Amino acid sequence: DTEVTQTPKHLVMGMTNKKSLKCEQHMGHRAMYWYKQKAKKPPELMFVYSYEKLSINESVPSRFSPECPNSSLLNLHLHALQPEDSALYLCASSQNRGVDYGYTFGSGTRLTVV
Amino acid sequence: DQQVKQNSPSLSVQEGRISILNCDYTNSMFDYFLWYKKYPAEGPTFLISISSIKDKNEDGRFTVFLNKSAKHLSLHIVPSQPGDSAVYFCAAGGGYQKVTFGIGTKLQVIP
After folding, report:
1. What Cα–Cα distance (Å) separates residue B13 from each residue in A114, B20, B30, B60, B76?
2. Is B34 on the interface with A (CB under 8 A)?
3. How far apart are the first and last CA of chain B?
4. pLDDT tens digits for B40-97?
5. Which chain A residues are closer than 8 Å to B32 by Cβ?
6. More exposed terminus of chain B, fewer Cβ within 10 Å: N or C?
7. CA quadruple A11, B36, B90, A23: dihedral, nearest 10
């Protein structure tokens, strides 16, 4: 299995809703990432987990809450989002955290906040 | 402040010819550079990388060149094929620093 699987592919949520994005990989990768990408912009790093511990939080608002229940799973819990949070959310994994490991990306979750 | 810049939003090339995608960076701490390819409705796919100790890395039809003094790298695709039509992201980082992505260049290979 050489894939990163993200669910759901599309999500529409209201500003008072609570939802979660899920990401799964079975490649034995020990680093996992959440990126946010808006139209015509590069992917922007949100969080990095290394060996199931949060190692980087890029000053992301607390309405985004990551969770790494085990080495194969990464969740992003969403609560009280704003319309400007609408974006493509990409999960990625790599063998280890060093920059010289190429990332394997999932297809992303297209999030719309209404 | 964009630390990784891809100044050409799009590029069209005839099938069989060379495609050259360019990337500039500003952060002198970057010592590893990567290219990713992205098809619509898919996540980016790792394509090729280069360490700052090298000036060239080749993998089949894909070659990446690095000019450290100019803080410039380029991706050459020879020969270009219609299946290469995608958005190409340049990315850079150093050690355990986060990887920073460019905005992408959309390549269209015309049959």
Report:
1. 40, 9, 30, 19, 12
2. yes
3. 38
4. 888 899 999 999 999 999 999 999 999 999 999 999 999 999 999 999 999 999 877 7
5. 99-100
6. N
7. 30
